[in-house]
Amino acid sequence: MVPVFVMLAIAYGNTVKLGQPDEALRWWALGVFVTCAVSDGIDGWVARRFNQRSSFGAFIDPIADKSLLLTAVVTLSVIDWGADGWRLPFWFSVIVVLRDCVILGGINVLYYRRLTVQIVPHWSGKVCTVTQMVALGWVMLKVAPLPPAWPCAVAAVFTVWSTVTYVRQGLDLLRQREWA
Predict the structure, then answer these.
(1) Each residue of 75-98: pLDDT tens digit?
(2) What CATH number has the domain bearing residue 43?
């Protein structure tokens, strides 16, 4: 569904650029995005509730989550969804992408050091994701009088905070390995 969202988002952005926004495209893009996000949440709840967790699910779920979120952040930072640059600020997309690169790089270092990495989300990572989703919704819904930079600033704080939290957890694992 991620490519469908991107195609709809770009198509809507093109109609905005032409000065004749096709609001149906915007609502379809939003609908696809929300469907992806909600189905992911339901899938996670079902897996936890009915103890249907699997190694494959633990591996693929974060990839699916990140592909949706990162693609949406990057797409909505390069495509105007309204007059006067109504989009996510470029600096925000850099922070979000950099966070995930740092975390993936850290996981690779830990695996290279032959450390078992339990991928367990920290609450700061969950708040980070929620605030990023709010920033995305802010752009897609276009209902607030404040520009998208405001929710992006809040999301950026939690994005940096969660990055620091995960880096600290990784460093703790490395220190434990040195003492073992």
Answers:
(1) 999 999 987 789 999 999 999 999
(2) 1.20.120.1760
